[in-house]
Amino acid sequence: MLIEAGDWIWNTPVTEYIPELADVVNRRDGKKDPVSYVDWEAITVGQLASHMAGISRGSSMPDLSERDVSSLTGLPGLSGSDVPLCISQLSCNRTEFFAYVVQQPPVVLPGTTPIYSNDAFRILGYIVESISGKSFAAVLNQRIIEPLELRKTSLLSENMSLGGLPPDTNSSGWMQRGAEAAAISMVSTVTDLAIAGKAILTGALLSGAQTNRWLKPVTHTSNPANSVGYPWVIYSGGGYPDTSMIDVYTALGNVGLYSSYIGLVPDFNVGFTILAKDSSTSPDLNAHTGVIGDALLPALTKIAAIQASTNFGGVYSSTTLNTSIAVSADSSPGLAIDTWISNATDFRATLAALNGIGKVDALSIRLYPTHLTSKRKSISRQAFRAVFQDKDEFADYGTATCVSWLGVDKFKYGGASLDLFIFEVDSNGKALAVEIPALKVRLEKQA
């Protein structure tokens, strides 16, 4: 959908693609009851994709009317007409599905808080079909499975020969409703999911700009360590404010006896996948993910610091001027500038004065990558920005507030940014020199 339509579609009302929903809006003739009926005109494609539509969990969810409720006292009796077709039979077609959905009240006001919904993803599947003029299965195969050569990924209705098949496929959840292909009806392997994860991180199917916009939060949850995206559940690891936050973009699911989990860490360009089944219920993989996060993220941070020190650490100096900087990596984020001499002057003192910092020793100068890179044959130019902070600054009444992002690109000299550093890097990733445009100087790294 992103490839064909572009991500502007996130802001388009779903009624533009789903005639059944547009018809129900027209039949209500402007009369709205926000408690009893969903205002489909107010729901966008992006809200469906980011858990923000506020609609019913799903026609596929178990209904107590399907169980023996004799032990559940206090429930009234039901007639056959009280049970919707989408509940009372194994599968419901598109007509039956929308007849059920339009009668469901909203769960919350759209756009206010994340609520998971299988129905939202089934509707997204129909939107993909509306845009492409093809079946969801055909789009899935032509746009994702075939280009990435995911040889063991398919819709359940297409391939039942893979995986650990339990004795009772009905109760296990293996046999899911085929019409819900876009929600809960796929089978895959850890290898194929790893291939898909790498394709996302490298922008194999989408442009780099679209991928960067996609891998971003949409809203928070009540847990500060969790946000949601399109359709990511974002786990924020790390021990902020003592360490930087590291976001893991995850997609997870559990159906019957099965659970799945994929996690992507764009900051380090790595990821992981977990598939599991159990004999009595779907395994809870959140605990496993926590273990991976506790072990993986600190290790990645340490490895990154070692690589940064190896590739960028050292003294850079001019061959004609008394100008130099010393760069190092430590346990904190980014690279540190320990000394900075410009034209035989301690430039740290100048920067401390510019930033209103009384003690030069309290000035922190750290370099952070901007992800802006240009290549010239075997040499690439990589831009970094410096962040200047007062290590003795009063910490906002003890809160972990960080406003350093407000000061980036703040100081200019002759139109050039004082915090811009451009490293020249060889094909092995090792820095050879650094340019500081505001000082009109190029410093070579000393052996």
Summarize the structure.
The chain is of the alpha+beta class and 447 residues long. It has helices spanning 2-5, 19-27, 45-49, 85-88, 94-101, 118-132, 136-148, 169-172, 181-184, 190-202, 208-214, 286-312, 347-354, and strands at residues 154-155, 186-187, 219-220, 226-228, 233-237, 246-255, 258-265, 270-277, 314-317, 324-328, 335-342, 345-346, 363-376, 379-390, 412-413, 416-417, 420-425, 431-436, 441-445.
Please specify the SSE layout and strand pairing.
Blueprint: H1 2-5, H2 19-27, H3 45-49, H4 85-88, H5 94-101, H6 118-132, H7 136-148, E1 154-155, H8 169-172, H9 181-184, E2 186-187, H10 190-202, H11 208-214, E3 219-220, E4 226-228, E5 233-237, E6 246-255, E7 258-265, E8 270-277, H12 286-312, E9 314-317, E10 324-328, E11 335-342, E12 345-346, H13 347-354, E13 363-376, E14 379-390, E15 412-413, E16 416-417, E17 420-425, E18 431-436, E19 441-445
Antiparallel strand pairs: 1-2, 3-4, 4-5, 5-6, 6-7, 7-8, 9-10, 9-19, 10-11, 11-12, 11-13, 13-14, 14-17, 15-16, 17-18, 18-19
